[in-house]
């Protein structure tokens, strides 16, 4: 096969990871076609958090300044005991954090970070979109790869990247493993600042950790809104998916929580309910000229706030690997997986453990509350260097 920038890559999925991958490959000069099953490119959800590693990736994609303009830069990360309201840990993510990691810590509406990448992608002449296109099958041969849509139409390319989320068709065709339904349910909502309790209007992602549950809040869109997230261990046998939620269900899981954080549960007019899932890490994400990225590759629980951040890192690393291997996709994809699989597995395992820490009860709760007593900010930063110290320049090391 001839290698060069005249080759076309098909990307399945137009979410944050898919758009980031399209941008990364287009910046290398490749032709990119994005296939999205929805009728229009967009995002659902509420707020997400962006660590310094995410901004390093956004800068490499050429959209860092746009994303910063839509972000709220926070002062601290706070972990609080939801029963006693005592502080457990506080990390300064202001000037010292920026000086250490080279970038800020911020929060942003999911639709706004998606839009920040979408605007760049729509303006790039090498990228085309096909919406209302649901990929049903994929295969590859000596001539390249083919994606077959719901109408039986083939989409030919030199390489294919599955960015199609937890229920990835590409992963199902190449790996065939099952998702791991966690039993943890996440409710998300956005409320206007006027409806947010004054005592909770803090410029920080604040986690209120309770037994088998926790609550999170932080500002969005210049502080005009607040993102609310509550998580609990479900009493039911859950199936992965997103539905409308009920206030009655939320309230039933937060008995015994102090009134200070619990009052948030009465504020939203509506909730969206996510029954969460992740996957155990695997040693390969694809075959030949097919690979996967983002939630298709490493769906993870939200406890480290790194799902979107890791998808952005994936995209940048993929683009750099293609450049390094002079557009030989088989070599590039193998190199991409070599560095990304162990890193994302570490994040995934760490997120699982952080979920256990958040939801501790009894004596384990007492141990948790003492874990970080006396720790300096420098010590916090040292322990987080592996996560937030990621850079595009070293992404293939």
From TrEMBL:
UniProt source species: Paenalcaligenes hominis
Keyword Ligase applies: no
Top EC class of this enzyme: oxidoreductase
Keyword tags: FAD, Flavoprotein, Monooxygenase, Oxidoreductase
Gene3D superfamilies the record matches: FAD/NAD(P)-binding domain (3.50.50.60)
Positions of the FAD-binding domain: 8-321
Enzyme nomenclature, EC number: 1.14.13.1
GO molecular function term, any single one: salicylate 1-monooxygenase activity
Protein's recorded name: Salicylate hydroxylase
Keyword Flavoprotein found: yes
Cofactor: FAD
């Amino acid at each position: 096969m001839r290698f060069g920038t005249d080759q076309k890559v098909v990307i399945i999925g137009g979410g944050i990871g898919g758009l980031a991958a399209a941008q990364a490959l287009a910046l290398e000069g490749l032709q990119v076609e994005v296939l999205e099953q929805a009728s229009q490119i967009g995002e659902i959800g509420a707020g997400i958090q962006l660590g310094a590693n995410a901004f390093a990736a956004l800068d490499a994609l050429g959209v860092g300044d746009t994303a910063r303009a839509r972000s709220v830069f926070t002062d601290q990360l706070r972990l609080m005991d939801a029963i006693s309201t005592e502080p457990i840990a506080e990390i300064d993510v202001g000037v010292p954090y920026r000086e250490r990691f080279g970038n800020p810590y911020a929060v942003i509406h999911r639709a706004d970070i998606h839009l920040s990448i979408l605007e760049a992608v729509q303006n790039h002449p090498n990228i085309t979109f096909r919406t209302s296109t649901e990929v049903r099958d994929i295969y590859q041969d000596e001539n390249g790869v083919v994606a077959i849509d719901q109408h039986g139409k083939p989409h030919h390319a030199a390489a294919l990247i599955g960015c199609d989320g937890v229920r990835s068709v590409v992963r199902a065709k190449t790996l065939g493993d099952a998702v791991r339904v966690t039993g943890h349910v996440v409710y998300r909502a956005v409320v206007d600042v006027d409806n947010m309790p004054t005592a909770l209007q803090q410029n920080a992602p604040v986690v209120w950790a309770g037994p088998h549950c926790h609550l999170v809040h932080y500002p969005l869109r210049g502080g005009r809104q607040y993102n609310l997230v509550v998580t609990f261990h479900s009493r039911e046998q859950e199936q992965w998916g997103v539905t409308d939620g009920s206030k009655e269900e939320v309230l039933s899981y937060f008995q015994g929580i102090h009134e200070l954080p619990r009052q948030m549960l009465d504020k939203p007019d509506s909730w969206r309910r996510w029954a969460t899932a992740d996957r155990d890490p695997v040693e390969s994400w694809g075959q030949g000229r097919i690979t996967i990225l983002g939630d298709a590759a490493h769906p993870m629980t939200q406890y480290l706030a790194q799902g979107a951040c890791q998808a952005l890192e994936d995209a940048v690393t993929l683009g750099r690997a293609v450049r390094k291997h002079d557009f030989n996709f088989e070599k590039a994809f193998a190199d991409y997986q070599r560095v990304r699989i162990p890193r994302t597995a570490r994040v995934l395992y760490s997120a699982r453990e952080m979920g256990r820490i958040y939801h501790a009860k009894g004596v384990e709760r007492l141990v948790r509350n003492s874990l970080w007593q006396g720790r300096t900010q420098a010590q916090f930063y040292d322990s987080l260097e592996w996560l937030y110290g990621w850079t595009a320049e070293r992404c293939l090391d």
